[in-house]
Amino acid sequence: MFHTEPLAYRMRPERIEEVVGQDEIVGVDTPLYKMIQKGHVPSMLLYGEPGTGKTSLAFAISGSTNKEFYAINATTAGKKDVENIINEARMTGDAILFIDEIHRFNKSQQDSLLKALEQGVITLIGATTENPFHSVNHAIRSRCGQIKQLKPLTKEAIIELLNRALSDQEKGLGSLNVHIDDSLIELISDTTGDGRTALSLLEDIVYASDETEDGIQVTKETVQYCIRNKGFSHDNKGDIYYNLLSGLQKSIRGSDADAALYYLARLLEGGDLEAISRRLLVIAYEDIGLANPQLCARVLPAIQSVERLGLPEGRIPLSVVAVELSLSPKSNTAYKALDKAIKHVQKGVTGDIPVHLKDAHYQGAKELGHGLEYKYPHNYPNSWVYQEYLPESIRNMNYYQPKELGEEKRYKNVYEKLDHLRQESRKKQS
């Protein structure tokens, strides 16, 4: 029996007991489950990656209540659509309004919901792939008693979802008598934490498999082929994209090469080489810095190689850079020192530039005394001579706090030696 609707659509849970993989949010022991069982549905915002079940949860909540249910998508609906639903809800009584991708609504469209929410005309369930604290108006958030983050489904949850679809005679694939080894179901579950993608992949696999007298026989070759050609990607303007970039940088900073390679792989599937390269270059100078300046200098040529090669070959230099950055000594002392200096300047912690450092390359500078007592370091042994460079009011300031890591050990020794010579010279002059 072939259906016109996709398997993922047909397998949407009709009641909250059928929701898979979100027990922390709507499991039988949660407050939200108990509220819904008693007929009370609070306004809420659901956010998470695509395929985590936001829409499914909204429909399951609707199926577990006797309330009118309206569903719209913010990419196609407008303010007028919302007003029409609110007017209809005023006549029918308390209703649930589900708005998918609510972050797509502008402020005016979101504000059109406020009065109906306050009066209890509608209960709002908003779904978004973006962090609602960034993408949804404060006025809407404050009227939503629940803000729930849905996590990607675990392997076990995906397996449960796939087996349910295989056995369901009415909505699933049960009537097709599909023969598939548990190991192949596991292979599919290892591919994604996205329930919709997993079900779509299973549907493709079943319809790509050969029919026998005993039903449909699924082979490993068919599963592998469909997985390879699924084309997983992500929205490179969404919250997930920035979380992946953040995961990459924090994994490298934490010296976890395996995690760095995992996030790099996910970003590469999104296809945005420019953003990956830019982030790796930032990581080199932000997190590696003076502990391994030679590596910092090598990152840009590697990135240029990636730009020249493109994909898939570009993944090779990227993998080398990601592993080397992960396993390198780390130091952020240089830019932290600069940030400290910038804060001082912004707060007005400044002073007059020492007169011997002032520009002397103009007529009349000598009359002002500018540059007259400047000592040219290259004229002295070791190219160093004592003289003050900071303004008098902050001459004892140490912005730079070196670490004893990698190459920075050597810089630390030089820095501390020079600081000691300055202190000794000051004592002699006082």
UniProtKB/TrEMBL annotation:
Q: Where is the AAA+ ATPase domain?
A: 40-154
GO terms for molecular function, please? ATP binding; ATP hydrolysis activity; DNA binding; enzyme activator activity; single-stranded DNA helicase activity
Arranged from A to Z, the UniProt key words for this protein are:
ATP-binding, Nucleotide-binding
Q: Per its UniProt entry, which superkingdom is the organism in?
A: Bacteria
Q: Name one GO biological process term.
A: DNA-templated DNA replication
- Protein family: Belongs to the AAA ATPase family. RarA/MGS1/WRNIP1 subfamily.
- The protein's name in its UniProt record: Putative ATPase
Organism of this sequence: Tenuibacillus multivorans
Lineage, uppermost ranks: Bacteria, Bacillati, Bacillota, Bacilli, Bacillales
